[in-house]
Amino acid sequence: MDSPCNWNKAVPWKIVVALLVSITTVLVTFPSDTTGSDVSQWYQDLCSYKWEAIDRDSKVKYTLKLCDSSPNTECGAGSAVCARNLTSQKNQSVGDLSLKKVTESSVIDFNSTEKCPGSSGTNVQSSISFQCGKTMGTPEFVTVAQCVHYFEWRTYAACKNNKYKPDKEVPCYVFDTDGKKHDLNPLIKLTDGYLVDDSDDEVHFYINICRSLNRPGSLCPAGSAACLTTSKGSFSMGLPTTQLELESSDRLRLRYEEAPDSTPDFCSGHTPAVTITFICPSRRQEGTDPKMTAKSNCRYEVEWVTEYACHRDYLESHNCTLTSKQHDINIDLTHLTLGSTDAPYMAEAKSSDGKDNYFYYLNVCGEIKAGECGGDPHYVSACQVKATGDQSKKIAGRYHNQTLRYSDGDLTLIYPDGSRCSSGFQRMTIINFECNKTAGNDGRGSPVFAGETDCTYYFDWQTASACVKEEEEDLLCRVSQYKHYDLSPLTRYPESESAQNWEAVDANASKSDKMRFYVNVCHKVLQQGATSTCPEDAAICAVGKEKVVSLGKFLTSPTKRNDSNDIRLVYTEGDECRKDMKVKSIMILKCKPGDLESAPIMRHMSSDGCVYEFEWYTAAACVMSRTVGDNCKVEDPQAGFSFDLSPLSKPGGGFYNLSNGDYDYFLNVCGSVTAAKCPLKAGVCQVDQRHVLSY
């Protein structure tokens, strides 16, 4: 059916339970408002933006307009909630802005004049339930029942006393063309910020994501989301003004810009601006820091390779497992789930003033049915009990809306929906799991209380269940030992149609029975052509006329010894070479600057055929570094690089002329452009009949 109002679903049982629970829960209350100005209302911070939510099951995209001042939806200026059927591409308003009602239980209802088909007396409408959150948050579609479209929204706007209200915040999520959600809200910091990796040791550049910085004790100007700190002081380099944008399916962009009247003198008249590009990596990897990639006249370019830029379905699960098919990693925490008669996991902690003791009782992906917190019928997985005095009990989180997330190497389990704090925020528990194959308690380990901040409880938990299965340990193709090395540029992936395995050059062809050696790096060999008969899990494979031999699997990350500059990559568990012995291959990678094309060399095979030794000269084995030069020259003696672009510079303000359509582009290299209409000292100038732009 094309009409969204006909998508009547049975209300999921957990939604029914949540609604029943809310009846007996003290809600955050606000004055009822059916008319009045949006400017004075508690939700006014949300009015500046058009918000989106998606019903993935029915393929319906919703656009929300909360206020008269909000951007219009595709259903017109009078529509508050517009439902677009992504199959038929038809729009239907499912809530009118003029029929808005704000209830005392922080719910905004948008009624309409359209009758619900098959239901007498009921109109098509939308209902948004707001709950206290720590960021601006995002609206989440819940369900459709009897032509009522339900949404839930956790946002700081719904908290009491402006507890988590920042100077400025913008929406921090986008949907891609496939309807998948990319959400950077987990990166938002309520206090402090991120220090950008920059080659200039004389300055510090701090950013927050989608939100102004809150750095107690710093001199960063209020409202700034990007702050430059030098010996001369701290300066705002940009305010959060525009919401997160989708650049492509794996790249997101966020832009901060300073007010024109707040430009520091050292910016040479340019308005400070920062562009942050978030890149979803092509494969699982450890977290990285944001890196400065370009800067000139207070214009900054920052790149951040982070898995948080990937779509949310890739990062999260709402059960206790992450699978290779969906998440590119295999993790199963169900082994930690306790039975109905098992005593819950317990952690002990003292209050911040040291006067009170607390016990925290936990289960993993299940409810607590035994002990002091047992008996609560509403999916309690985390519970706080005061050890002395009144021994009061607080629910610290429930599992029915839990999130298991693996991103940038961190595995976390999040329990929301606990008892409410004075701000209205519902208590939450976040457990950070770490791999420990020798953990006690039969490998299960136990939680350790790590701290509490604003009614959110943090635990660290070392357990064997958090360890990635061996065949998935291609997560690490890097070496970090004071310096950083990355072998991933050598990896060949099956997703690329042009990708081919590396073929090693045999330095001892006469001794190897004319075998051909095919190699991949930190990955299985691609099943193609000559390697189509290689064992599926082989990372290096020898192919002859009459036999195929696995020379090893990728089961351990590359390493580097302190007494050598070489990278060592060992593949083990190949085919059996003699009784109780399997083939292994040792790959020694040596730095060769600028060369990512040379193939590995097979140097030696042991007399019993159990050990193969390879040597590979490649730029991937060189230390990762950033070097800044001057006078149009840059060199890195350690890596052997030296670049001199001065021969490309045009003297006397000369330029290269590149024309495209109605525009002329004048460019010089390491020098200014002297051309008609171009500003003084411009290095690149765009000219048309109306404007002149220089960079």
TrEMBL record:
Record-level Gene Ontology MF annotations: D-mannose binding; signaling receptor activity
Localisation: Endomembrane system
Domain of life: Eukaryota
Residue ranges constituting the MRH domain according to the UniProt record: 45-161, 170-312, 318-469, 475-624
Record flagged with keyword Repressor: no
Record GO biological process: lysosomal transport
Cellular component annotations (GO), alphabetically ordered: endosome membrane; Golgi membrane
Record-linked InterPro entries: CIMR_rpt, Man6P_isomerase_rcpt-bd_dom_sf, MRH_dom
Pfam families found in the cross-reference section: CIMR
Keywords: Disulfide bond, Membrane, Signal, Transmembrane, Transmembrane helix, Transport
Keyword Cell membrane: no
PANTHER family per the UniProt record, alphabetical: CATION-INDEPENDENT MANNOSE-6-PHOSPHATE RECEPTOR, MANNOSE-6-PHOSPHATE RECEPTOR FAMILY MEMBER
Protein name: MRH domain-containing protein
